[in-house]
DNA sequence: TTGAAAGCGTTACCAT
DNA sequence: ATGGTAACGCTTTCAA
């Protein structure tokens, strides 16, 4: 597995050396390091001084060998097609996860299987007990990983609603409510022929955002017209195709809710090309609230997702589960927020 | 350090159990696992069968304890202000790093210090010998980490040109050449009053891209006019301010090279708002080639960076250094590519 | 409250 | 080519 040669190693102080310097036994030093209460204050001070002096840091490998815990958590990002990466979702999620994990003294081990072959490797690695738990992000619909890990007794938390009837803990943003508020806003500002460009309908966000669209229509007393629902896939190409079709069938459209900013931006430019004014003729609302939303012309109204907080919650849930195993799956749904900008300004205000 | 309780653990097969089943000694099994040649084929087969049967996976902690290597690599992302994250740079870089590391059987440990306090923790963690080497990305100008790690004998590779006279291995994209090709293209298509919106000039990309702009001007026989160089900071706000100033002083501008797509997109919308046609009146070229470059109106010409390849090279360089220590710093500069789209179409071709 | 000693699972050296 | 046997650095009974 690892045949390459070794390398020069900073000789770190060991527990033994600290014990020697402090004039106590290894066991006592260990107790100090691990915050045991059964150590007299004076000895504790001596030991701490010795630790300080030697710059001692515990050898994680040795500790892990005996405790059978690694104090590290895997984050598994199973990139679907690779295309879904037009936004800085992962950096922000990772930042959220990372800061919470750091605060609780866990290492973040990042696994990004690309090929199906990698996935087997990953599953193997995880079940081999090298990590105490796993955070799973952007799973495909039929990914066997959650079931396998759960069966192996490994605590996991998913990012995003799990497919089917998989009973596991997860954290998600409220896609449905986010979409609902976006469309409700369009209705409130006088739009009546509201189309949507959906995400792929084999993904939870795609499904949930469309449902939010339908919810808002129903609540607003507008009739659901399936020909106003164009299937997109979060990509510019897909959005362009969907919108072209939409405009051909429904030239009277006065608002579009796109299930992603990427698609909304495409819509912005296509609408312009077709001679329609935004928001004069057609209002556009996106989903994601990417940074570029303020750079488009006009600036894009969009649904903001608390991505870092999602990371925080995922890490918190998992670490809690690792520290105190509990078979009951938890779920956390985070609220989204509609950020209103020029692309959906009411007709009264140009 | 870690006082919380343990947790249920999958009891993995051990070397001992495999040895028992295969009817050989632990040492022999170890040799098979590590691909030693000094094992007879028949025994090797027996052992492999036993491994398979038991689903044996080596205990990394135990291995690391004796070999004094962790077979894991840290990726340290010291996010500067947090704003610089308008593009999916990190996911792509991480993907590149991850795949190369996986291919060479190293674990990727991700460290994202946020506060200066975290940085101390990180430095400590790294020098404690828990990883075999570190990949450092997006350092601030005066970050002490490279020096500290190098002094501690830890192999490191930087992503991006190092500040000042720091002598370490690094991988960078050819920002200068990329900018040069962008501006050369503008000159070649008949533009004569070419402005630039720079990045922050205390960062390597900011400096290098401006230099590329100047190179192209010189090569094209155009005189350098510093009032055509507006200071930006990669953000929409900064770009807007810079461009407004620029247009006030030089209403005759017929091309803009923005040091980032984010800024180029802002320029696109501001130029439109000011009544100028792109590319009819003014050509615009960006840098990054973000996915949205194809969704803007008009589509944005931009300099493409091989980010995943950058990750590959970084990982490769580091793992090589870990396996075969060598004090000579290496550097790899990756070529960029100008992707021509509508925003810089020549005047002859509308 | 403290110390002695027994492992944890692996590698690597030394015999055979 | 194979096996026996020390380590590796730490935690954790068990005694004292």
Describe this protein with a few key phrases.
homodimer; 350 residues; alpha/beta; 434 Repressor (Amino-terminal Domain); Rossmann fold; six-stranded parallel β-sheet; 15% strand
Tell me what you see in this structure.
The structure is a homodimer of 350-residue chains. With 350 residues, chain A is an alpha/beta fold. The model of chain A is unreliable at 1-10 (pLDDT under 50). In chain A, the strands form two sheets. In chain A, strands 2-1-3-4-5-11 form a six-stranded parallel β-sheet, with helices on both faces. A six-stranded mixed β-sheet of chain A has the order 7-6-8-9-10-12, with helices on both faces. In chain A, α5 runs parallel beside α12 (307-323). The first copy, chain A, folds into three domains: 15-67, 434 Repressor (Amino-terminal Domain); 72-172 and 307-332, Rossmann fold, CATH 3.40.50.2300; 175-306 and 338-344, Response regulator (Rossmann fold), CATH 3.40.50.2300. Chain A has twelve helices and twelve strands. The first copy, chain A, has helices at residues 15-22, 26-33, 41-54, 60-67, 89-103, 116-127, 145-151, 175-188, 204-219, 236-249, 261-273, 307-323, and strands spanning 72-77, 107-111, 133-137, 156-159, 169-173, 194-198, 229-231, 255-258, 283-288, 301-304, 331-334, 337-339. The interface between A and B is large, with 86 and 88 residues. Chain B binds a DNA duplex (16 and 16 nucleotides) through α2 and α4.
């Amino acid at each position: 597995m690892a045949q390459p040669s070794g390398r020069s190693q900073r000789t770190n102080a060991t527990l033994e050396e600290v014990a020697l310097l402090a004039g106590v036994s290894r066991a006592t030093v260990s107790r100090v390091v691990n915050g045991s209460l059964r150590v007299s204050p004076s000895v504790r001070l001596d030991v701490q001084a010795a630790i300080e002096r030697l710059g001692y840091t515990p050898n994680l490998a040795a500790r892990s060998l005996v405790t059978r815990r690694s104090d590290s958590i895997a984050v598994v990002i199973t990139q679907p097609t690779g295309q879904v990466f037009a936004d800085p979702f992962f950096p922000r999620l990772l930042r959220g996860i990372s800061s919470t994990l750091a605060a609780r003294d866990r290492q973040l081990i990042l696994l990004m299987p690309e090929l199906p072959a990698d996935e087997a490797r990953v599953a193997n690695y995880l079940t081999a007990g090298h990590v105490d738990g796993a955070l799973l992000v952007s799973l495909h619909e039929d990914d066997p990983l959650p079931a396998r890990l759960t069966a192996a007794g490994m605590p996991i938390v998913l990012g995003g609603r799990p497919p089917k009837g998989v009973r596991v803990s997860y954290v998600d943003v409220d896609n449905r409510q986010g979409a609902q508020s976006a469309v409700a806003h369009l209705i409130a500002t006088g739009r009546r022929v509201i189309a949507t460009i959906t995400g792929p309908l084999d993904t939870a966000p795609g499904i949930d955002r469309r449902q939010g669209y339908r919810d808002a229509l129903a609540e607003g007393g507008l009739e659901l017209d399936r020909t106003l629902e164009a299937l997109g896939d979060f990509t510019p190409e897909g959005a362009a195709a969907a919108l072209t079709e939409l405009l051909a069938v429904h030239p009277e459209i006065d608002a579009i809710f796109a299930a992603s900013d990427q698609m909304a931006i495409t819509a912005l430019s296509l609408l312009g090309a077709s001679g329609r004014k935004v928001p004069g003729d057609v209002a556009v609302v996106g989903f994601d609230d990417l940074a570029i939303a303020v750079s488009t012309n006009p600036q894009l109204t969009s649904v903001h997702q608390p991505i870092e907080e999602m990371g925080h919650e995922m890490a918190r849930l998992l670490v809690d589960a690792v520290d105190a195993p509990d078979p009951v799956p938890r779920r956390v749904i985070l609220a989204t927020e509609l950020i209103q900008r020029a692309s959906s300004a009411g007709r009264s205000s140009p």
